[in-house]
Specification:
mainly alpha, single chain, Arc Repressor Mutant, subunit A, globular, Hypothetical Protein Yqey, Chain: A, domain1, 7 helices
């Protein structure tokens, strides 16, 4: 959990963000306020596209997309030697992650991948897409957040091991 927010049970992600925007305004925390407004705008944009309110699962998907975009930006800023911009993006990632369930660690991902592979028998590298789909579904079903890129690397590593 991030220092900025404490998720209140029974409150939707959108409601929590609105409450935190108010707190950031009162605290005159411009950087946090700017990031929260950006998150609120992204959620509102998705809501307008869908033409109905978002549930928490849909809100989490939007937030995950925002995190992925920021991680790409961090990489690009570092390549371009813009460390201050990379740090700003990383601060936004931390803020956004505070509204999501805890992400699975490397060990949890590895255990999940191995479990799916053993259930499937002995899949080959050509079955990587199916393995990925099953692993992602398993984590999503359990309400655990995972990074698809990390899962992909673990699946590739496990499938390329000699049998």
């Amino acid at each position: 959990m991030c220092l900025w927010t404490a998720i209140i049970p029974g409150m939707s992600i959108s409601e929590q963000i609105q409450k935190d925007i108010t707190q950031a305004m009162k605290a005159r925390d411009e950087q946090r306020l700017s990031a929260l407004r950006m998150v609120k705008t992204a959620l509102k944009h998705r809501e307008v596209e869908k033409m109905s309110p978002l549930d928490d699962k849909e809100s989490q998907q939007v937030l995950s997309t925002l995190i992925k975009q920021r991680k790409d930006s961090v990489e690009q800023f570092r390549k371009g030697g813009r460390e201050e911009m990379a740090e700003k993006e990383e601060a936004e990632i931390a803020l956004i992650e505070s509204y999501l369930p805890q992400a699975a660690g490397q060990e949890e991902i590895l255990a999940g991948v191995r479990a799916v592979i053993s259930e499937m028998g002995s899949p080959a590298m050509k079955d990587m897409g199916t393995v990925m789909k099953n692993v992602m579904a398993r984590f999503q079903g359990a309400g655990v957040r995972v990074d698809g890129k990390t899962v992909s690397e673990v699946v590739k590593g496990e499938l390329s091991k000699p049998k």
